[in-house]
Design brief:
Elements: H1 48-54, H2 65-69, E1 101-110, E2 115-116, E3 121-125, E4 149-153, E5 159-165, E6 176-188, E7 191-204, H3 207-214, E8 245-248, E9 257-265
């Protein structure tokens, strides 16, 4: 496969080294590389006490059914070559980028307790409709752009919400959103500081929606061959566990969708 001139190069498939950032990059370097490998995917399960509580609807200790069902460690996936540790705290990350509106709701759960994790930083980044990441363009330059990147802290129910657009695609990769969770940090002057990364992964989209979105503007101007989830080597290593549940906002897909997912993490982990 070859890249089209206006698109980024593909991220590595399973077992390969990550693609290096473009030459002359002046932003922060790529950190962790897991090569799409799945780390710690064993389900933790519920304790006997939690199982008993689940059978008793009136028990105060019963975790919400959706969180209990997701009380499994979410697989780690490669960070990829396009991460920038800007750590800018903001809900709307579109910066005027065109695309199908996406309300993204990420719930973060402690796998040890099946309880939601408040005050956890959820850090996301993804490409635009034509497959371009902010901060990186073909040719190796790193313009000072920040579209489709941002951080939100989870609320008391463990939910972080973003206003963004449905991502596009580039050579060799299925449609996806990158995600990190950070624990133990603080926010000042609109930026998240300190703490440590507790999870690095990717979020994916159902193919039925991908096909419909690809037919809309501006996505139909993307000349790169779209890779299906099933043919993406990174998706095949745990991606099905972070497949978004999408709800269309009205009869017109162009009006937008809501995407939800639950991430099960160990907040003290430093993978």
């Amino acid at each position: 496969m070859t890249d089209t001139p206006h698109l980024n190069s593909a991220e590595p498939e399973r077992g390969s080294e990550p693609v290096a950032p473009p030459a002359g990059a002046t932003r922060r370097s790529v950190i962790a590389t897991l090569g799409g490998a799945t780390l710690g995917v064993a389900a933790l399960g519920l304790t006997a006490a939690q199982a008993t509580a689940a059978a008793e609807p009136n028990t105060a200790t019963q975790p919400p059914a959706r969180l209990a069902a997701a009380c499994v460690l979410t697989p780690e996936q490669t960070e990829g070559p396009y991460y920038l540790d800007l750590e800018t705290v903001r809900k709307n990350i579109t910066e005027g980028k065109a695309g199908v509106p996406l309300t993204l709701r990420v719930t973060v759960v402690d796998t040890a307790t099946c309880s939601p994790l408040p005050n956890t930083a959820v850090d996301i980044w993804h490409c635009d409709a034509l497959g371009v990441y902010s901060g990186y363009v073909a040719g190796g330059s790193t313009p000072d752009t920040t579209f489709l990147r941002g951080v939100q802290l989870t609320d008391s129910t463990g939910v972080a919400e973003f206003a963004t657009v449905y991502p596009g695609w580039y050579v060799g990769r299925a449609l996806h959103i990158h995600v990190k969770t950070h624990a133990g940090g603080t926010v000042s002057n609109g930026t998240y500081h300190g703490g440590h990364v507790s999870h690095t992964g990717q979020l994916y989209f159902p193919e039925t929606y991908n096909t419909k979105v690809a037919a809309l503007a501006p996505y139909r101007s993307n000349s790169a061959t779209r890779t299906l989830n099933a043919r993406d080597g990174i998706y095949r290593n745990g991606g099905s566990s972070t497949l978004l549940t999408l709800t269309q906002m009205g009869s017109d897909l162009g009006k937008g969708v809501i995407g939800t997912v639950v991430l099960g993490i160990r907040p003290a982990a430093t993978p």
